[in-house]
Design goal:
Bound molecules: 4'-deoxy-4'-aminopyridoxal-5'-phosphate
CATH topology of the largest domain: D-amino Acid Aminotransferase, Chain A, domain 2
InterPro entries: Aminotrans_IV, Aminotrans_IV_CS, Aminotransferase-like, BCAT-like_C, BCAT-like_N, Class-IV_PLP-Dep_Aminotrnsfr
CATH superfamily of the largest domain: D-amino Acid Aminotransferase, subunit A, domain 2
Protein name: branched-chain-amino-acid transaminase
Order of helices and strands: EEEEHHEEHEHEEEEHEEEEEH
Cofactor: pyridoxal 5'-phosphate
Largest sheet: 10 strands, mixed
Shape: globular
Strand content: 25-35%
Number of domains: 2
Pfam families: Aminotran_4 (PF01063)
Number of helices: 6
Number of strands: 16
Enzyme class: transferase
Length: 268
């Protein structure tokens, strides 16, 4: 049984109508739960505040209530692994919010070992800093992913620069230097932020500059970051192939997983 915690109280999944993506004034957050612990809740709350502001909405929930609601949902549904999705939407003049458990199809171990396939999609998210679904782009991306049997598409803007994935951020690696598009061009991923911390700890250089779609051949390795995939090596962008065993990237993946273990240990 999946219980949903909402502004109307506790609701059973069966009697809940998900209006979330049918309004353009919808913001959301997806929070990873591992071993019954919700990860990086404060970072998600801070981003939620930014998304709400961009959409002209005011959040009427404190950080401590946000955190408590997530913990309550995890307890009620006895979640050990999965995602908690928070949705705030305005539809027909009414504000509505809900926390719900989303069992997720995470990448399989082979995806981490052999990498995933991608290609370019020429599209730009509006107000990229807000975590809102832009239905047009999302549908286009999902269609391309399904038709071409890809894992993800990389968005390329009008200047030919690669910004991010349709639901992930993207990094490029060359000689132990890590390149990723700046905050202003993307949804500022929580995973990306944590990857920055790990890279600093490892002493690698981060360059916050978008890579041109024409320049991808210059790079040794590419990876995606996101709440669900964590750090996922990319084997291909179209016909171009990349090294999924790049030592700096593999070290980063280890350090990231250690960082998560440490976070969970502290929260338990
Ligand atoms: N960019 C976009 C467009 C996304 O939808 C996501 C997934 N939320 C991300 C980046 C990655 O963000 P996060 O690491 O917070 O999941």
């Amino acid at each position: 049984m999946n219980l949903i915690l909402s502004n109307e109280g506790l609701i059973h999944e069966t009697s809940y109508s998900d209006i979330s993506f049918y309004s353009d004034q919808t913001v959301y957050e997806v929070i990873r739960v591992i071993d019954g612990v919700a990860l990086f809740v404060e970072d998600h709350f801070l981003r939620l505040e930014i998304s709400m502001q961009i959409q002209g909405l005011l959040i009427q929930m404190s950080y401590s209530d946000f955190k408590q609601n997530i913990a309550e949902l995890v307890r009620l549904n006895q979640i050990m692994e999965g995602n908690v999705k928070f949705v705030y939407s305005v539809a027909k003049g009414n504000a509505h919010w809900a926390f719900r458990f989303i069992p997720h199809n995470y990448p399989i171990p082979e995806n981490y070992q052999f990498g995933v396939t991608t290609d370019f999609l020429f599209a730009e998210r509006q107000n990229p800093n807000a975590k809102v679904i832009q239905v047009g782009i999302r549908n286009l991306a999902d269609q391309m992913i399904a038709d071409r049997k890809l894992y993800e598409v990389l968005l390329v803007d009008r200047d030919g620069m690669i910004t991010e994935g349709s639901r992930s951020n993207v990094f490029f690696v060359k000689s132990d230097v890590f390149y990723t598009a700046p905050d202003s061009m993307i949804l500022v991923g929580i995973t990306r932020k944590k990857v920055f911390d790990c890279l600093k700890e490892l002493g690698y250089t981060i360059v916050e500059e978008a890579v041109s779609a024409k320049e991808v051949d210059d790079f040794d390795a590419v990876f995606l970051t996101g709440t669900s995939p964590k750090i996922l090596p990319v084997i291909s962008i179209g016909k171009r192939l990349f090294n999924v065993q790049n030592p700096a990237m593999v070290r980063l993946m280890d350090v990231y997983n250690q960082m998560i273990r440490e976070y969970i240990r502290k929260e338990l």
